């Protein structure tokens, strides 16, 4: 089950348990966020295309973290004029984990992440000769 959502002026194809980086959103890490602008929905059997949006389909996610990208430098130089300009920019972003896509009676929930098991300290049994 997947959906195409629109947020921050861009479109993203998402499925349950996907992690996406989008334009900054309001809210703290761990907060739930709902995306209402669903443009396309597919469940493996049929695909619904909105004109332009679909109703009755919701995509829910959880904010993982907020951050800023690396600095981008815009450098302008006019030769032989002793004129230079250097400007920097860092774009804010939000990382979101998609937890659920629901459409009418159907729902695709992300399974809880399992903790990784530590490797056992026992050595592998040696083959007897």
Automatic annotation (TrEMBL):
GO terms for biological process: translation. Residues 118-129 have a biased composition (Low complexity). It holds the Pfam family Ribosomal_L21p. Keywords: Ribonucleoprotein, Ribosomal protein, RNA-binding, rRNA-binding. GO terms for cellular component: cytoplasm; ribonucleoprotein complex; ribosome. Residues 77-96, 103-129 are annotated as: Disordered. One of its GO terms (molecular function) is structural constituent of ribosome. The keyword RNA-binding applies. Part of the 50S ribosomal subunit. Contacts protein L20. Belongs to the bacterial ribosomal protein bL21 family. This is Large ribosomal subunit protein bL21. It comes from Methylorubrum salsuginis. The gene is rplU.
């Amino acid at each position: 089950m997947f959906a195409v959502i629109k947020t921050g002026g861009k479109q993203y194809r998402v499925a349950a348990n996907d992690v996406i980086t989008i334009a900054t959103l309001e809210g703290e890490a761990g907060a739930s966020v709902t995306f209402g602008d669903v443009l396309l929905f597919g469940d493996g059997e049929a695909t619904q295309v909105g004109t332009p949006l679909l109703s009755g389909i919701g995509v829910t996610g959880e904010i993982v973290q907020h951050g800023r990208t690396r600095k981008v430098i815009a450098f302008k130089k006019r030769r032989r004029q002793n004129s230079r300009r250097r400007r920097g920019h860092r774009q804010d972003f939000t990382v979101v984990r998609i937890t659920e896509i629901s459409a009418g009676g159907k729902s695709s929930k992300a399974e809880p992440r399992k903790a990784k098991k530590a490797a056992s300290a026992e050595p592998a049994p040696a083959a007897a000769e």
